[in-house]
Amino acid sequence: MSPKSKKDRRQAIKQRSLKMARKEKSEFLSAFGTTFEIWKKIVDAVLSLGGNDEDIRRLLTDKSLAKKVAEVIMASKQKVSEIYKVVFDYGLSLAEMIKLGNYGWFNDDITAKNFPLQGTGKQESELLLVHLNRDVTTKEVLEYLNSQGLEPAKIEHLLAFGTTYPEVQREFPIVALGSSFVGDSGSRRCPYLSCSVGLRELRLPWVVDDNPWHGSCRFVAVRK
Q1: Domain spans of the chain?
Q2: How far apart are CA 211 and CA 137, in angstroms?
Q3: What pLDDT tens digit does each residue of the chain (224 aa) get?
């Protein structure tokens, strides 16, 4: 290799090293800048509410406070879906409502005896699908719905939803906490829509207070 070639090679290596160093420095500064901006937003918010430096320092010393901040951030991911309009007819029996849904499978404990309907005539309702975007207990769902001026939908709402929007349950489970019954085992059960092996299903899982629902679940709700 000629002296000139060696020199060119050394120069190319040096240039690559400089580029890598600049890139690493740029990424570091970028990360630092983002962290600073996040911290500044928190500080500004605390000060705007009348807080001071001591209040801000509590984030470093009070673990419960840091957790509360994290919970607020995660709660901001909670969302309510668009409104789904449905019409259901109390002139139909529960069995007829189920049949209209054309489910590939349904739990045979979902009967008029276990889920008596209360209402008359045709009614229109606006349903919302609430997604908390995390594993959540039934108690947490009910508390959240109440805080938003909502209440859990009943089985007639769920069945009307399944009939009117049959493909939605293929995307995620849809739960109606407003209707339930206690089975022979003594456990409470409530209806929900799901999909398994391509089949649209109307299921009836056990509701265990300390056993959370999967984060993918949506909860049907109506306004109070």
Answers
A1: 3-74, 77-223
A2: 6
A3: 555 555 566 666 556 655 555 555 555 556 667 777 777 788 788 888 888 888 888 888 887 877 777 766 665 555 556 799 999 999 999 999 999 999 999 999 999 999 999 999 999 999 999 999 999 999 999 999 999 999 999 999 999 999 999 999 999 999 999 999 998 888 899 999 999 999 999 999 999 877 899 999 999 999 99
- For domain 77-223, give the fold: Mannose-Binding Protein A; Chain A (3.10.100)
Tokens of 221: 């709700």
3-state per-residue secondary structure call for 147-209? HCCEEECCHHHHHHHHHHCCCHHHCCCEECCCCCEECCCCCEECCEEEEECCEEEEECCECCC
Coil/strand/helix, residue 99: helix
User: Torsions phi, psi of 137, nearest 5?
Assistant: -80, 165
Place of tokens 């679940």: 217
Of 58, 207, 78, residue with least CA distance to 148? 78
Residues sharing a CB contact under 8 Å with residue 61, sequence separation 6 or more, in sequence order: none
Ramachandran region of residue 149, left (φ > 0), alpha (ψ -120 to 50) or beta? Answer: left
Contact 209, 138 (CB under 8 A): yes
